[in-house]
Design a protein that fits this description.
About 25% of the residues lie in helices and about 25% in strands. It is α/β, with parallel strands linked by helices and about 280 residues long. The chain has a five-stranded mixed β-sheet with strand order 10-9-11-8-12, with helices on both faces. It is globular and about 60 Å long.
């Protein structure tokens, strides 16, 4: 699958027009009325708390609610730290995870994923260092921060080995942070030279903090985001996948992505474990 090129400008709309919801035509009937979803609202625009209202908002919330309405389900969003989400799913505290999670082959050993967006790791730095750091290779020998809870530190090390050390340049100094917000704080303070986070979040960050940061090059990894389920709950997995197919067909999915400026992160069809839905 060819992953889309990222970089759509993030334009937040105050409202959007969506088709009326109806019972899913593609999903099987589910024997439940409520599902609990693990979510860590610390990753705008995927999920975060509105500073004025305290309400949970973001593209994951909008897509999740649209899927719930298609299936006639009430959603209960459970705020759980990312590192605790897998255990909460395994123990039945939640029914699924929808929190900007990457679908990784290693995770598929115990989980199933319904894929709904593309992603990738993106380098960025402070705008006032644009003349110094013009391309990814200018980061060789410099310090780059990224959340230690993600795969990004390992991906940065892999990129550094291929593009810095292999060319006889010093390796990138990788700094594990407590999250993307901590990485940005360290970057503002000059404690690191650059940072990396998901490409789906960079346009939003550039729009909400103008003249503060700049992206460096293009995303240096390719990945799929997925809603995670236990392998024992194929019914819910298939129901969500079918509902996703419906909201893609009627324009709801496209409208939600346009609201958050994430059209470039769309996938053409729903996928289960990185394979197109039959």
């Amino acid at each position: 699958m060819k992953i889309a090129v990222y970089g759509a400008a993030c334009v937040l709309l105050s409202s959007m027009s969506m088709p009326a919801f109806a019972q899913s035509a593609s999903a099987p009937q589910l024997d439940r009325k409520t599902i609990t979803i693990a979510n860590a609202p610390l990753y705008p625009p995927m999920e975060f708390k509105d500073t004025k209202t305290g309400k949970l908002v973001g593209i994951d919330i909008d897509i999740g609610e649209a899927l719930g309405k298609r299936l006639g389900l009430t959603l209960k969003w459970e705020e759980i730290g990312f590192e605790q989400q897998l255990n909460s799913l395994a123990t039945g505290r939640v029914d699924m995870i929808m929190s900007g999670m990457f679908d990784l082959p290693s995770r598929r050993e115990t989980l199933d994923f319904v894929n709904y967006l593309t992603s990738g790791a993106q380098f960025y730095t402070r705008a006032d260092r644009a003349a110094e750091i013009k391309s990814e290779t200018d980061l060789c020998g410099k310090s780059v921060g990224s959340s230690r809870r993600t795969t990004f530190p390992a991906e940065i090390a892999k990129w550094s080995a291929a593009h810095c050390e292999a060319a006889g340049k010093p390796a990138i100094k990788i700094v594990g942070t407590e999250g993307s917000a901590d990485a940005r704080t360290q970057l503002r303070q000059g404690r690191i030279d650059a940072a990396a986070q998901g490409s789906e979040t960079v346009p939003y960050m550039l729009q909400t903090e103008p003249n503060t940061f700049i992206a460096i090059g293009k995303p240096f990894t390719e990945a799929l985001l997925g809603m995670a389920f236990t392998k024992k709950d194929a019914a819910l997995r298939d129901g969500i996948a079918g509902a996703l197919k419906d909201i893609m067909a009627d324009g709801t999915y496209k409208a939600i992505l346009a609201k958050w400026g994430m059209e470039a992160n769309a996938i053409p069809v729903p996928m289960v474990n990185s394979k197109p839905l039959n």
